[in-house]
Amino acid sequence: MEVQELERLIRQQEVADSNVFSALMRKVYVWMTLALVITGVTAVGVANSPNLLALIYGNSFTMWGLIIAELGLVMYISARIEKLSLSTATILFTVYSALNGAMLSSIFLLYTTAVISKVFFITAATFGVTAFYGYTTKKDLSSLGSILFMALIGLIIATVVNMFMKSSMFELILSYIGVAIFVGLTAWDSQKIKEMLMVQRNAGEGAQKVALLGALSLYLDFINLFLYLLRIFGRSDD
Predict the structure, then answer these.
(1) pLDDT at 8 > cutoff 80
(2) b vs e for 121-148, b when ≥16 Cβ sit within 10 Å of the residue's Cβ?
(3) 123 Cβ neighbours under 8 A, 6+ residues apart
(4) What are the sequence ranges of the domains in the chain?
(5) What mean pLDDT do residues 199-221 have?
């Protein structure tokens, strides 16, 4: 009888853990989707406002201020997530999404709406397939993460160098490399988020902050993948 009771309790705990995991995974993608919506709406709004465009891109101080604010917010959220309240972390994520949208408004000046829409759907499909692979694969992708991180640092350095070289061919090569890196990072982040959420025993504030940080990681993967694909397909549509 005691053995049967123990088995019943174990099954109940497994069901509870499964429900907690499912709820947290939903939050990851809900937060990520909302952040993308905020970014998109802000980008369109700024792009359709000559005054805001002039304020951001007509003043280098404002533009660099936004860039520094974005970097500062990402670093602050990532470093202080455990000490921040869930509501504060969510507000900061929302602010970051809006600031990123303001900076991304320039794509509407560089590319047609048709190209942007096409690339968005290509990005969504690529991201979805890659995230699904990372979520379902039994292969350990942890070693891939460190390799991709080093490759990302190299990509950033090469991009800075090309700002002075101004080589269109080198920029195209870097765009393909960027796509490969963020495809890999999407798979790695998906597996890492799954592993972090699987050990959560409840959907309390601490677990939700882990989910929020996961949403931020996937949001950044999506945005960067979109931008590199846009450079590739935008060039082909010139």
Answers:
(1) no
(2) ebbeebbeebbebbeeeeeebeebbeeb
(3) 222, 225, 226, 229
(4) 2-236
(5) 91
